[in-house]
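Thread: Newbie trying to understand structure tokens

Hi all, I'm a second-year student working on a class project, and my supervisor (Dr. K.) asked me to get a predicted structure for one chain before our next meeting. I've only ever worked with sequences, so writing a 3D structure as a token string is new to me. If someone could post the tokens and maybe explain what I'm looking at, I'd be very grateful. Here's the chain:
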Amino acid sequence: MTEWMPVLVAQAWQVTLLIVVVAAINRWVGKSRPHLAHALWLVVLVKCVTPPVWSSPSGLFCWLQPARETIQEPLAVEPPSRSWSELLAESRDLETAEVISRRRKFSDEEVETDAAITELSQIRRPPVAEVPSPITANQVEWPSVLLGVWALASLVVIGVAVVRWLRCWRMLRSAPRRECAELSEQLDWLAKRLKLRRRVRLIVTESRLGPAVIGLFRTTVLLPALIVDRLAERDGCVASPLTPILAHELLHIRRGDLWVGLLQTLAQAVWWCHPLVWWVNRLTTREAERCCDEEVLAELGCDPAAYARALVDVLELKRELKPVPVFPGVRPVEVTTQRLERIMQLGQGCRRRTPWWCWLIAALAAAASWPGAAFVVTAEDPGERGGVSPPVVSPQPTNRGADAAPLA
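---
Reply by user tm_fold:
Sure, no problem. This is what the structure looks like when written as tokens:
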């Protein structure tokens, strides 16, 4: 396992440098472009789970490391001065009676040697006691120990996330549910308007969980009944006040943010001791919320003040609700003052989807950052490096005629 330590060290400094560079770029040009910032953070997350085991001319990290050289020493073979037919004819002429007699003599000596070895093997020797050698500190493979501790901690992080999800799911199943046909129809109408191809369920639960989106394969929008009742009492209608909230959750599904949550969990499990990776996860979630805010206003064409008011209603009940644990396939609603201020500043120019040029910049960033292995240079001529050329080996003809001759 010691060969993995250089790979781990290289991955650590490459991930750290990439996070610093992307953070500087987003601070400079990503404040008003959440789609670009989110795409660049996705490049960082993929880099966190991609070991630097391959190189490419486009990889900047490949050029920042000294190239590893390997010497390729070909075996020099001297061609025979005569043809194989001449050598074979000459070998057959050397079959004489003297060679046959010598072979018979050697076979008799081999029989006598075998008999002597058999007699010696029948003599019993006293067993030799094996003294175990003490294990010193220098014999402990510390790289293997560190790698084992690292893997064990990663499994603990994943195990904690799984336990939290199971507790959430048990709480959700034990709580009673409420049927709301009006909200279900509103959700289906929004899914068609947003061109969502997969079917999404709606659960109005009496528990304190939500609002959130759960499920990677069986996607479900989770709404607490407390929010539904509070909005119905204020406006006298259930569907209209919750329309921006439902659209926001559906846009998370359309964007694939549930699968990004899985990527975030894997990156956090691998780099559990890296504080910058935890910081990247928070920023990625924040940028995803900003992207959905823009897409809600662009798709529904609603007033930013009305959308912000609906989020404020969720913010007022946030202390009475329990957040859904962050796990793959779970997207809780989070409302902050900075988010509300930005929504109020949004006007025309909101984008319905991530622009193509954002994905183009992300692809260029991936081509420059994902390859991380050093280049391998092959030296074909060892004499140029001051080495010694291998000896010249000439093939020896096999005396097939002598082997095939019978013993007289």
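A couple of things are worth pointing out once you decode it. The two ends are 60 Å apart (CA to CA). Residues 33 and 168 are 34 Å apart (CA to CA). Feel free to ask follow-ups in this thread.
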